[in-house]
Recover the amino acids of this structure.
Protein backbone atom coordinates (compact mmCIF):
# COMPACT_ATOMS: atom_id res chain seq x y z
CA UNK A 1 0.00 0.00 0.00
CA UNK A 2 1.53 3.37 -1.05
CA UNK A 3 2.31 5.76 1.81
CA UNK A 4 0.78 8.82 0.16
CA UNK A 5 -0.35 10.50 3.37
CA UNK A 6 0.93 10.67 6.97
CA UNK A 7 -0.51 7.96 9.18
CA UNK A 8 -1.98 10.64 11.44
CA UNK A 9 -3.94 12.12 8.51
CA UNK A 10 -5.25 8.71 7.42
CA UNK A 11 -6.23 7.81 10.99
CA UNK A 12 -8.16 11.06 11.38
CA UNK A 13 -9.94 10.55 8.08
CA UNK A 14 -10.74 6.89 8.82
CA UNK A 15 -11.74 7.44 12.44
CA UNK A 16 -9.29 4.74 13.56
CA UNK A 17 -6.37 4.66 15.96
CA UNK A 18 -2.81 5.40 14.82
CA UNK A 19 -1.76 1.85 15.77
CA UNK A 20 -4.49 0.28 13.65
CA UNK A 21 -3.69 2.39 10.60
CA UNK A 22 0.02 1.68 11.04
CA UNK A 23 -0.68 -2.07 10.97
CA UNK A 24 -2.71 -1.69 7.76
CA UNK A 25 -0.22 0.61 6.04
CA UNK A 26 2.68 -1.74 6.81
CA UNK A 27 0.59 -4.80 5.86
CA UNK A 28 0.92 -6.50 9.20
CA UNK A 29 -1.40 -9.42 10.01
CA UNK A 30 -4.26 -9.43 12.49
CA UNK A 31 -6.38 -6.70 10.89
CA UNK A 32 -9.94 -7.35 9.77
CA UNK A 33 -10.77 -6.98 6.08
CA UNK A 34 -13.39 -4.34 6.88
CA UNK A 35 -10.76 -2.27 8.71
CA UNK A 36 -8.39 -2.50 5.76
CA UNK A 37 -11.23 -1.34 3.47
CA UNK A 38 -11.91 1.62 5.77
CA UNK A 39 -8.25 2.70 5.59
CA UNK A 40 -8.27 2.35 1.79
CA UNK A 41 -11.48 4.40 1.66
CA UNK A 42 -9.90 7.09 3.83
CA UNK A 43 -6.89 7.27 1.50
CA UNK A 44 -9.23 7.58 -1.50
CA UNK A 45 -11.12 10.39 0.25
CA UNK A 46 -7.85 12.21 1.01
CA UNK A 47 -6.74 11.74 -2.58
CA UNK A 48 -10.00 13.24 -3.83
CA UNK A 49 -9.62 16.20 -1.51
CA UNK A 50 -5.93 16.79 -2.23
CA UNK A 51 -6.79 19.52 -4.70
CA UNK A 52 -7.65 21.73 -1.73
CA UNK A 53 -4.11 21.63 -0.32
CA UNK A 54 -3.28 25.07 -1.68
CA UNK A 55 -6.15 26.76 0.16
CA UNK A 56 -5.64 28.58 3.43
CA UNK A 57 -8.19 28.66 6.22
CA UNK A 58 -9.76 26.81 9.09
CA UNK A 59 -9.76 23.05 8.52
CA UNK A 60 -13.13 21.42 9.16
CA UNK A 61 -13.71 17.66 9.14
CA UNK A 62 -17.36 16.68 8.63
CA UNK A 63 -19.13 13.33 8.42
CA UNK A 64 -21.55 12.45 5.61
CA UNK A 65 -23.94 9.75 6.87
CA UNK A 66 -26.50 8.45 4.38
CA UNK A 67 -28.81 5.50 3.94
CA UNK A 68 -29.71 5.78 0.27
CA UNK A 69 -29.24 3.98 -3.06
CA UNK A 70 -25.79 4.38 -4.59
CA UNK A 71 -27.17 6.37 -7.51
CA UNK A 72 -28.26 9.11 -5.05
CA UNK A 73 -25.25 9.03 -2.73
CA UNK A 74 -23.03 9.43 -5.80
CA UNK A 75 -24.65 12.69 -6.89
CA UNK A 76 -24.67 13.95 -3.30
CA UNK A 77 -20.98 13.15 -2.87
CA UNK A 78 -20.07 14.87 -6.14
CA UNK A 79 -22.12 17.97 -5.27
CA UNK A 80 -20.67 18.05 -1.75
CA UNK A 81 -17.16 17.98 -3.17
CA UNK A 82 -17.92 21.10 -5.22
CA UNK A 83 -19.63 22.81 -2.27
CA UNK A 84 -16.66 22.12 0.01
CA UNK A 85 -14.23 23.59 -2.51
CA UNK A 86 -16.33 26.75 -2.76
CA UNK A 87 -16.70 27.17 1.01
CA UNK A 88 -13.67 29.35 1.48
CA UNK A 89 -11.87 30.37 3.59
CA UNK A 90 -12.52 27.06 5.40
CA UNK A 91 -10.90 23.89 4.09
CA UNK A 92 -13.36 21.00 4.34
CA UNK A 93 -12.75 17.29 4.44
CA UNK A 94 -15.48 14.69 4.63
CA UNK A 95 -15.62 11.17 6.02
CA UNK A 96 -18.16 9.02 4.20
CA UNK A 97 -20.53 6.60 5.93
CA UNK A 98 -22.73 5.47 3.04
CA UNK A 99 -24.97 2.42 2.68
CA UNK A 100 -27.90 1.43 0.49
CA UNK A 101 -29.55 -0.25 3.45
CA UNK A 102 -28.46 0.16 7.04
CA UNK A 103 -30.27 -1.38 10.02
CA UNK A 104 -31.16 1.25 12.61
CA UNK A 105 -28.86 -0.21 15.33
CA UNK A 106 -25.90 -0.01 12.94
CA UNK A 107 -26.80 3.54 11.91
CA UNK A 108 -27.05 4.57 15.56
CA UNK A 109 -23.66 2.94 16.21
CA UNK A 110 -22.14 5.05 13.40
CA UNK A 111 -23.58 8.26 14.87
CA UNK A 112 -22.46 7.36 18.40
CA UNK A 113 -18.95 6.58 17.14
CA UNK A 114 -18.82 10.03 15.53
CA UNK A 115 -19.97 11.55 18.84
CA UNK A 116 -17.13 9.78 20.69
CA UNK A 117 -14.30 10.71 18.35
CA UNK A 118 -15.59 14.18 17.46
CA UNK A 119 -16.52 15.99 14.26
CA UNK A 120 -17.07 19.54 13.06
CA UNK A 121 -20.48 18.56 11.72
CA UNK A 122 -22.69 15.72 10.52
CA UNK A 123 -24.67 15.84 7.27
CA UNK A 124 -27.38 13.20 7.68
CA UNK A 125 -29.90 11.42 5.50
CA UNK A 126 -31.56 8.84 7.72
CA UNK A 127 -34.97 7.40 8.63
CA UNK A 128 -37.15 9.37 11.03
CA UNK A 129 -37.29 6.87 13.89
CA UNK A 130 -36.86 7.47 17.65
CA UNK A 131 -33.49 5.72 17.97
CA UNK A 132 -31.96 7.89 15.23
CA UNK A 133 -33.50 11.05 16.72
CA UNK A 134 -31.97 10.21 20.11
CA UNK A 135 -28.56 9.66 18.51
CA UNK A 136 -28.82 13.06 16.80
CA UNK A 137 -29.65 14.64 20.16
CA UNK A 138 -26.54 13.01 21.65
CA UNK A 139 -24.40 14.49 18.88
CA UNK A 140 -25.80 17.95 19.48
CA UNK A 141 -25.33 17.57 23.24
CA UNK A 142 -21.60 17.11 22.52
CA UNK A 143 -21.55 20.30 20.48
CA UNK A 144 -21.49 18.57 17.09
CA UNK A 145 -23.87 20.37 14.69
CA UNK A 146 -26.20 18.20 12.58
CA UNK A 147 -27.81 19.18 9.28
CA UNK A 148 -30.40 16.82 7.80
CA UNK A 149 -30.46 16.40 4.02
CA UNK A 150 -33.43 15.57 1.75
CA UNK A 151 -35.47 14.10 4.62
CA UNK A 152 -35.76 15.47 8.15
CA UNK A 153 -35.62 13.74 11.54
CA UNK A 154 -37.80 14.98 14.41
CA UNK A 155 -35.55 15.56 17.41
CA UNK A 156 -35.84 17.16 20.83
CA UNK A 157 -33.50 19.97 19.74
CA UNK A 158 -34.09 21.79 16.46
CA UNK A 159 -31.50 21.57 13.71
CA UNK A 160 -31.22 22.89 10.13
CA UNK A 161 -32.65 20.97 7.18
CA UNK A 162 -31.48 21.40 3.59
CA UNK A 163 -33.27 19.92 0.64
CA UNK A 164 -36.41 19.95 -1.43
CA UNK A 165 -39.76 21.30 -0.29
CA UNK A 166 -41.25 17.81 -0.21
CA UNK A 167 -44.87 18.86 0.26
CA UNK A 168 -44.63 21.22 -2.71
CA UNK A 169 -43.05 18.41 -4.74
CA UNK A 170 -45.99 16.08 -4.07
CA UNK A 171 -48.49 18.78 -4.99
CA UNK A 172 -46.58 19.59 -8.18
CA UNK A 173 -46.50 15.92 -9.19
CA UNK A 174 -50.29 15.66 -8.66
CA UNK A 175 -50.89 18.79 -10.74
CA UNK A 176 -48.80 17.44 -13.61
CA UNK A 177 -50.39 14.01 -13.35
CA UNK A 178 -53.90 15.49 -13.55
CA UNK A 179 -52.97 17.56 -16.59
CA UNK A 180 -51.59 14.53 -18.44
CA UNK A 181 -54.40 12.14 -17.50
CA UNK A 182 -57.20 14.63 -18.14
CA UNK A 183 -60.81 14.35 -16.95
CA UNK A 184 -61.78 10.81 -15.94
CA UNK A 185 -65.18 9.25 -15.43
CA UNK A 186 -65.81 6.77 -12.58
CA UNK A 187 -65.12 3.24 -13.77
CA UNK A 188 -62.88 4.48 -16.59
CA UNK A 189 -60.14 6.13 -14.54
CA UNK A 190 -56.47 5.30 -14.82
CA UNK A 191 -54.97 4.30 -11.47
CA UNK A 192 -51.62 5.68 -10.30
CA UNK A 193 -48.76 3.83 -8.62
CA UNK A 194 -46.77 5.80 -6.05
CA UNK A 195 -43.47 4.02 -5.42
CA UNK A 196 -41.47 4.78 -2.27
CA UNK A 197 -38.27 3.40 -0.79
CA UNK A 198 -39.97 3.30 2.60
CA UNK A 199 -42.10 5.66 4.65
CA UNK A 200 -39.57 5.66 7.50
CA UNK A 201 -38.16 8.64 5.59
CA UNK A 202 -40.05 11.79 6.48
CA UNK A 203 -39.33 13.46 3.14
CA UNK A 204 -40.89 10.66 1.09
CA UNK A 205 -43.83 10.48 3.49
CA UNK A 206 -44.47 14.21 3.00
CA UNK A 207 -44.38 13.83 -0.80
CA UNK A 208 -46.83 10.93 -0.71
CA UNK A 209 -49.36 12.60 1.58
CA UNK A 210 -49.31 15.82 -0.44
CA UNK A 211 -49.70 13.88 -3.71
CA UNK A 212 -52.60 11.76 -2.45
CA UNK A 213 -54.45 14.78 -1.07
CA UNK A 214 -53.97 16.81 -4.24
CA UNK A 215 -55.01 13.92 -6.51
CA UNK A 216 -58.24 13.56 -4.52
CA UNK A 217 -58.99 17.16 -5.44
CA UNK A 218 -57.84 17.07 -9.07
CA UNK A 219 -59.02 13.57 -10.07
CA UNK A 220 -61.35 12.09 -7.42
CA UNK A 221 -62.15 9.09 -9.65
CA UNK A 222 -58.46 8.06 -9.75
CA UNK A 223 -57.18 5.49 -7.22
CA UNK A 224 -53.65 5.93 -5.88
CA UNK A 225 -51.77 2.75 -4.89
CA UNK A 226 -48.80 3.37 -2.55
CA UNK A 227 -46.02 0.79 -2.70
CA UNK A 228 -43.20 1.10 -0.16
CA UNK A 229 -41.53 -2.31 -0.15
CA UNK A 230 -38.82 -1.93 -2.83
CA UNK A 231 -36.27 -0.05 -0.67
CA UNK A 232 -35.28 1.93 -3.77
CA UNK A 233 -33.27 -1.09 -5.00
CA UNK A 234 -33.57 -2.74 -8.41
CA UNK A 235 -34.50 -6.40 -7.80
CA UNK A 236 -36.89 -5.86 -4.84
CA UNK A 237 -38.63 -3.07 -6.77
CA UNK A 238 -39.11 -5.16 -9.92
CA UNK A 239 -40.67 -7.93 -7.81
CA UNK A 240 -42.90 -5.61 -5.77
CA UNK A 241 -44.18 -3.63 -8.77
CA UNK A 242 -44.75 -6.86 -10.71
CA UNK A 243 -46.98 -8.22 -7.93
CA UNK A 244 -48.97 -4.99 -7.79
CA UNK A 245 -49.50 -4.92 -11.57
CA UNK A 246 -50.89 -8.45 -11.48
CA UNK A 247 -53.36 -7.40 -8.78
CA UNK A 248 -54.27 -3.96 -10.17
CA UNK A 249 -54.98 -4.00 -13.92
CA UNK A 250 -55.97 -0.30 -14.01
CA UNK A 251 -52.53 1.00 -12.94
CA UNK A 252 -50.90 2.79 -15.88
CA UNK A 253 -49.25 5.91 -14.42
CA UNK A 254 -46.44 6.33 -11.89
CA UNK A 255 -45.16 8.91 -9.42
CA UNK A 256 -41.86 7.62 -8.03
CA UNK A 257 -40.79 9.39 -4.84
CA UNK A 258 -37.99 6.97 -3.97
CA UNK A 259 -36.14 6.08 -7.17
CA UNK A 260 -35.40 2.69 -8.81
CA UNK A 261 -37.25 3.99 -11.86
CA UNK A 262 -35.50 1.64 -14.28
CA UNK A 263 -36.78 -1.23 -12.13
CA UNK A 264 -40.33 0.12 -12.19
CA UNK A 265 -40.23 0.33 -15.98
CA UNK A 266 -38.76 -3.17 -16.20
CA UNK A 267 -41.75 -4.48 -14.24
CA UNK A 268 -44.16 -2.73 -16.61
CA UNK A 269 -42.26 -4.14 -19.60
CA UNK A 270 -42.40 -7.67 -18.18
CA UNK A 271 -46.14 -7.28 -17.67
CA UNK A 272 -46.46 -5.87 -21.22
CA UNK A 273 -48.18 -2.80 -19.81
CA UNK A 274 -47.88 0.82 -20.89
CA UNK A 275 -46.60 3.35 -18.35
CA UNK A 276 -47.53 7.00 -18.90
CA UNK A 277 -47.18 9.51 -17.44
CA UNK A 278 -44.18 8.71 -15.25
CA UNK A 279 -42.88 11.41 -12.88
CA UNK A 280 -39.65 10.87 -10.94
CA UNK A 281 -37.18 12.69 -8.68
CA UNK A 282 -33.48 13.62 -8.98
CA UNK A 283 -31.20 13.96 -12.00
CA UNK A 284 -29.01 10.91 -11.43
CA UNK A 285 -27.49 9.00 -14.35
CA UNK A 286 -30.38 6.51 -14.53
CA UNK A 287 -33.02 9.22 -14.68
CA UNK A 288 -31.11 11.26 -17.23
CA UNK A 289 -30.97 8.24 -19.53
CA UNK A 290 -34.67 7.49 -19.03
CA UNK A 291 -35.59 11.13 -19.59
CA UNK A 292 -33.63 11.29 -22.83
CA UNK A 293 -35.19 8.00 -23.98
CA UNK A 294 -38.68 9.40 -23.41
CA UNK A 295 -39.51 6.89 -20.70
CA UNK A 296 -39.76 9.50 -17.95
CA UNK A 297 -42.29 12.26 -18.56
CA UNK A 298 -40.62 14.68 -16.17
CA UNK A 299 -38.19 14.79 -13.26
CA UNK A 300 -38.76 16.95 -10.18
CA UNK A 301 -35.43 18.53 -9.43
CA UNK A 302 -33.86 21.07 -7.09
CA UNK A 303 -30.48 22.71 -6.73
CA UNK A 304 -28.65 20.08 -4.68
CA UNK A 305 -25.35 21.92 -4.91
CA UNK A 306 -26.91 25.00 -3.33
CA UNK A 307 -28.38 22.82 -0.56
CA UNK A 308 -24.95 21.43 0.24
CA UNK A 309 -23.39 24.89 0.08
CA UNK A 310 -25.90 25.98 2.72
CA UNK A 311 -24.99 22.95 4.83
CA UNK A 312 -21.30 23.94 4.66
CA UNK A 313 -22.20 27.49 5.69
CA UNK A 314 -24.09 26.11 8.69
CA UNK A 315 -21.04 24.11 9.77
CA UNK A 316 -18.77 27.12 9.30
CA UNK A 317 -21.14 29.29 11.32
CA UNK A 318 -21.30 26.71 14.11
CA UNK A 319 -17.50 26.47 14.24
CA UNK A 320 -16.85 30.22 14.12
CA UNK A 321 -15.24 29.94 10.69
CA UNK A 322 -17.73 32.01 8.70
CA UNK A 323 -15.42 34.95 7.91
CA UNK A 324 -15.37 35.33 4.13
CA UNK A 325 -18.81 33.77 3.63
CA UNK A 326 -21.19 36.16 1.80
CA UNK A 327 -23.08 38.39 4.26
CA UNK A 328 -26.48 37.16 3.08
CA UNK A 329 -25.43 33.54 3.54
CA UNK A 330 -24.03 34.26 7.02
CA UNK A 331 -27.28 35.90 8.07
CA UNK A 332 -29.33 33.02 6.65
CA UNK A 333 -27.19 30.40 8.41
CA UNK A 334 -27.23 32.36 11.68
CA UNK A 335 -31.03 32.73 11.60
CA UNK A 336 -31.60 29.06 10.78
CA UNK A 337 -29.17 27.98 13.49
CA UNK A 338 -30.97 30.22 15.99
CA UNK A 339 -34.50 29.12 15.11
CA UNK A 340 -33.75 25.59 13.89
CA UNK A 341 -36.02 23.77 11.46
CA UNK A 342 -38.81 26.34 11.84
CA UNK A 343 -36.73 28.93 9.98
CA UNK A 344 -35.59 26.72 7.11
CA UNK A 345 -36.58 27.65 3.57
CA UNK A 346 -36.53 24.41 1.57
CA UNK A 347 -35.42 24.45 -2.07
CA UNK A 348 -37.93 25.18 -4.78
CA UNK A 349 -39.15 22.47 -7.12
CA UNK A 350 -38.10 22.56 -10.78
CA UNK A 351 -39.91 20.51 -13.45
CA UNK A 352 -37.25 19.09 -15.80
CA UNK A 353 -37.85 17.69 -19.29
CA UNK A 354 -35.26 16.70 -21.92
CA UNK A 355 -35.36 20.29 -23.19
CA UNK A 356 -34.59 22.31 -20.04
CA UNK A 357 -31.80 20.36 -18.38
CA UNK A 358 -29.71 22.44 -15.95
CA UNK A 359 -26.57 24.00 -17.42
CA UNK A 360 -24.27 21.74 -15.38
CA UNK A 361 -25.77 18.55 -16.86
CA UNK A 362 -24.26 17.21 -20.10
CA UNK A 363 -26.65 17.12 -23.03
CA UNK A 364 -25.43 14.53 -25.55
CA UNK A 365 -27.94 13.88 -28.28
CA UNK A 366 -30.34 16.67 -27.33
Amino acid sequence: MAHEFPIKEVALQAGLSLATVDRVVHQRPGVRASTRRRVEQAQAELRRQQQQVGLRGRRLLIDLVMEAPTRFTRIVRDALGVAMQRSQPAVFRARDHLAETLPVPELVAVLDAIARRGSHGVLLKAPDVPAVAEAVDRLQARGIPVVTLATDVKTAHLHPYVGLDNRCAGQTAAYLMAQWLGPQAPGQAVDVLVSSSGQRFQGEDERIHAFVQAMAQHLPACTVHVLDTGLGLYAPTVAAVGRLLREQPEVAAVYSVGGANAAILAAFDQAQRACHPFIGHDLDDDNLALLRAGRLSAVLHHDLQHDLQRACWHFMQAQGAARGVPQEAREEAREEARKGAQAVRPSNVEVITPFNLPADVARPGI
About this structure: The chain has a mean pLDDT of 86. Residues 1-47 form a domain with the 434 Repressor (Amino-terminal Domain) fold (CATH 1.10.260). Residues 252 and 273 are 7 Å apart (CA to CA). The chain has three domains: 1-47, 55-163+303-348, 166-301.
